[in-house]
Specification:
The complex is a heterodimer of chains A (236) and B (290).
Chain A (H helix, E strand, L loop, with lengths): L3 E10 L2 E11 L4 E5 L6 H8 L4 E8 L2 E2 L5 H7 L1 E4 L11 H8 L6 H14 L1 H5 L10 H13 L5 E5 L7 H18 L2 E6 L2 H7 L2 E6 L2 E7 H6 L1 H8 L2
Parallel strand pairs in A: 3-8, 3-9, 6-7, 7-8
Antiparallel strand pairs in A: 1-2, 1-4, 4-5, 9-10
Helix pairs in contact in A: 3-6
Chain B lengths: L1 H31 L6 H17 L4 H24 L7 H23 L23 H23 L1 H11 L1 H6 L4 H27 L6 H15 L4 H21 L6 H15 L14
Classes of the chains: A alpha/beta (236), B mainly alpha (290).
Chain lengths: 236, 290
């Protein structure tokens, strides 16, 4: 069984169609990257998966159709989204943000343990425990956003440009931890990135989007090895 | 000196009521950025429910509890029935709905309970138990009840998961949805709680101003001034604003402007704040980064 199956997935904002018949799937335990230029529809693809945008076509998550379901239910089913702009609750404290991440969980006893685990992963968050999230640095906010999403104990983590606006050193730190999370906690990921080389370094599979259509897909190794693809589409 | 202290204590009692109404306004404003103009009439209607129950021989505190619960349910239903359909509509549409609700509650109250002025019982003894010289029993009781309600509301928001979810939904609805919070229901709960707070305020002020369908018209203005004075996005500010306003109103009324201009003072205060400090005494100015 696939983790996620998208079949002829389209999405539009009002009359403005942004995604055209995307068909792709995610392996359980894998990391998949969606690459593409600005405006290619990467962010919309993630929004389509958690149904915060109007879609057509089918979406199947672990054998269950999720298209047309409410976002809250999809979250409950185990899909956590770290949206662009990070989506942290800036007026709330770090602790409250983490507690909110576990809002739909019933095993309240284990939530405290999970918060501790986030602090082992991101020690910097522990120092800022009682601080308002809005006062954190960009890197810390991204760490908080990822931790918040992990508090759901998701099967699938959607990440929208986790490297955006961050210093290279912090980006490396965050990507290392994401690899760790994927390997140790078996959290599958769907990653959107403009920085193609960074994304291909983490992901095992990639799709390339151009103006709302998938123009190319393959294993990261193949894409990296193909010089013409790299030159034409990825520009490095 | 004695009369000064009496004015202050009466001001504190009224201030508690303004604080409660202010808080109810702030709660709805925080989550929807709208001012619920019907807040006062909803509270009046709740007070009528309590009055009818007491007329039927129901003991005061049982009537109090029933009223609070019924008001909560009415608040939730109003959001579900009247406001959910216009959730995404322009501000003006919402304002019209609020005004519609105001008129509906006012006339339904008049229709069912008629417009004659009714006395509303106070559950507290006439003579205060503490400091009887300056406080009447009802003043002390009213301050105590208001304090208990405010503390309960703040504890709910601060310490319970549902309270946290409601705050999250108010601050950032998109992200709240992404952690699995049913945002629209949180708004409904907020309406229920605002109606509940309003009901308590109505029942506490009714023995002082007497009950009729227009009872809350002036008090809503004070509540609005309280919320603005404290900062429309700051619940603590609304409460402090209410208390300050209550005392100020009584002192100015007794010594400076006379009782005829009390309500005018609230309006002058609203205009002054909007001009010079629109974010209130304790609110934070909002800057958006482009």
């Amino acid at each position: 069984m696939k983790l996620l199956d998208a079949d002829n997935l389209s999405a539009s904002y009002g009359a403005n169609q942004v995604l055209f018949d995307l068909t792709f799937n995610l392996e359980i335990g894998g990391i998949t990257a969606i690459l593409g230029a600005n405006g290619a529809g990467k962010t919309t693809t993630l929004r389509a998966v958690c149904q915060t945008v109007k879609t057509a076509g089918s979406l199947t998550f672990l054998g269950n159709r999720i298209d047309g379901r409410a976002t809250e239910e999809i979250v409950k089913a185990g899909i956590a989204h770290v949206p662009d702009g990070r989506g942290t609750f800036t007026q709330l404290t770090v602790e409250e943000n983490l507690r909110l991440g576990a809002y739909t969980r019933k095993d309240k006893a284990e939530v405290a343990a999970d918060i501790e685990q986030m602090f082992t992963r991101f020690p910097r968050l522990k120092e800022r425990y009682r601080q308002q999230a809005g006062t954190l640095s960009g890197g810390e906010q991204q760490m908080l956003a990822i931790s918040r999403a992990l508090m759901l104990r998701p099967r699938l983590l959607l990440l929208d440009e986790p490297s955006f606006g961050l210093a290279p050193l912090i980006v490396k730190e965050i990507f290392d931890i994401m690899r760790q999370i994927n390997q140790e906690d078996k959290v599958s990921m769907l990653l959107v990135e403009q920085n193609a080389s960074l994304a291909l370094g983490l992901a095992d599979h990639a799709y390339l989007l151009e103006t709302g259509k998938i123009v190319l897909s393959g294993s990261s190794a193949d894409i990296k090895a193909d010089e013409s693809i790299r030159r034409i589409y990825l520009g490095y | 000196m004695d009369s000064l202290l009496q004015q202050i204590s009466a001001g504190l009692a009224n201030g508690g009521i303004y604080a409660a109404i202010g808080l109810a306004l702030v709660m709805i404003h925080q989550s929807t950025h709208h001012i619920n103009f019907a807040q006062g009439e909803m509270a009046t209607f709740s007070t009528f429910i309590a009055w009818a129950l007491i007329q039927q021989g129901v003991p005061y505190w049982i009537a109090f509890v029933i009223t609070v619960v019924v008001s909560f349910v009415i608040g939730v239903l109003i959001q579900r029935i009247f406001l959910k359909p216009v959730e995404k509509a322009p501000v003006l549409t919402n304002v019209i709905v609020f005004i519609g609700l105001l008129v509906i509650f006012n006339s339904v109250a008049g229709w069912i309970f008629d417009y004659t002025i009714k006395s509303f019982p106070s559950p507290f003894p006439l003579e205060g138990m503490f400091l009887p010289k300056y406080f009447s029993g009802h003043q002390i009781g009213s301050i105590a009840v208001t304090l208990v309600v405010l503390l309960a509301v703040f504890s709910f928001f601060r310490f319970t998961p549902l309270g946290l979810a409601m705050r999250a939904a108010a601050f950032n609805p998109e992200s709240a949805r992404l952690v699995g919070i049913k945002v629209s229901w949180m708004l409904a709960l907020g309406w229920g709680m605002a109606a509940l707070i309003g009901a308590v305020a109505g029942m506490m002020i009714a023995p002082v101003v007497f009950l009729d369908p227009n009872m809350m018209a002036g008090i809503l203005l004070y509540g609005f001034a309280a919320a603005l004075l404290g900062g429309i996005d700051n619940p603590w500010g609304a409460v402090l604003g209410g208390v300050i306003l209550g005392v100020l109103e009584n002192l100015l009324g007794a010594y400076v402007i006379g009782s005829d201009l009390k309500l005018t003072m609230a309006l002058v205060l609203i205009v002054t704040i909007l001009i010079f400090r629109p974010y209130g005494l304790f609110g934070k100015p909002i800057f958006s980064r482009v």
